[in-house]
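Changelog note: in this version the structure field was regenerated for every chain. One regenerated record is shown below for reference.
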Amino acid sequence: MLKAYSSHGGDAEERLFIMWNVFVFAILSGMVGLIAYEIFQEVGGSSAPLHDRYHE
């Protein structure tokens, strides 16, 4: 078991390091997921062509 998660404690620097790693991993995983979703949408195509309502 990790020292930072044990009931005996663990120093604050270790807990901060682990929390920072989890935070960075979550952000990077989210970005990869969004990029993969965009690629999947582009490869799969769209049911309708894009329609520019701003310049109408």
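Spot check on this record: The chain is about 60% helix and 0% strand. The longest helix spans residues 12-44.
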